[in-house]
Design brief:
- A five-stranded mixed beta sheet has the order 1-3-2-4-5.
- Helix 1 crosses helix 2.
- The two termini are 36 Å apart.
- By secondary structure, the chain is an alpha+beta fold.
- Strand 2, helix 5 and strand 3 form a beta-alpha-beta unit.
Length: 248
């Protein structure tokens, strides 16, 4: 339904940009007594769209970009300065990548290798990790544990181990992975009881609804909102595009 509404609005953009110009020309060629009626207007609209179908996806893309920019501006504080998400790479980097993930997501498990390679090759990139547990109850438990591990400065070790895990997560397995990652299990369980962690995860879920990400993985890179997995070369290309845009 959302895509249909987007297409409808985009078509109206096309109409306002092109069809009314053509209609205006027709009106100029007619007398006041021979003004265009609604049927004629509809016919001109249909003729224009059938003659120029390629502009519809272009209009959709323009509209999507405008909507993304508006949503990102409204969500800027929660995206970049929430005070609870882990940050890696260059904290003063000129390009920020926000990643949303679920520890039960197979595609998400391919991302850490890309992020590590990008940080190694590009010393001016900042990464913000945002928990988005949506696939299972164990996803929620793992995300709460991961966020609690920050209090022991063990997030990256624990996060990486959870992403490398190939088995279906359970509470017992999450605790085992934590222990194997050097996390103090007793302290972790105590910190996981902090209700603020659950609140912060809910903030992430609210955030993705606002910016248009409905699954994992998901990324925000500058003006780009990317709902889904992207290969490494595409990731680098978007970073390059953002740098070029900043220079303009």
């Amino acid at each position: 339904m959302k895509n249909l509404n987007l297409l409808t609005i985009a078509i109206m953009m096309v109409i306002s940009a092109g069809v009314f110009f053509m209609i205006g020309q027709q009106v100029n060629n007619q007398s006041d007594s021979d003004a265009l009626n609604q049927d004629q207007v509809n016919a001109y609209i249909r003729e224009y769209l059938l003659s120029n179908p390629e502009i519809i996806p272009e209009a959709v893309e323009v509209l999507r970009s405008r909507q993304n920019a508006s949503a990102l501006m409204e969500s800027e504080e929660l995206l970049y300065n929430d005070g609870f998400s882990h940050v890696a790479g260059n904290v003063d980097g000129d390009i920020t990548i926000v990643e949303f993930y679920d520890y039960n997501c197979g595609y998400c498990k391919q991302v850490p290798e890309h992020i590590a390679q990008l940080i190694e090759e590009d010393k001016n990139v900042k990464i913000i990790f945002k928990e988005l547990p949506i696939l299972a109850e164990s996803s929620q438990y793992a995300s709460v544990a991961a966020m609690a591990s920050m209090k022991q400065d063990k997030f990256m070790d624990f996060h990486s181990a959870l992403m490398k895990n190939k088995r279906q997560l359970t509470e017992e397995l999450v605790m085992q992975i934590a222990s194997d990652s050097g996390v103090d299990e007793d302290k972790l369980l105590q910190d996981m009881a902090d209700p603020e962690i659950e609140t912060n995860i809910m903030k992430n879920k609210y955030l993705v609804q606002n910016i248009g990400i409905s699954g994992t993985p998901g990324f925000v890179i500058g003006s780009h909102v990317i709902p889904g997995y992207i290969p490494y070369e595409r990731l680098k290309d978007i970073v390059r595009q953002e740098r070029e845009t900043q220079k303009m």
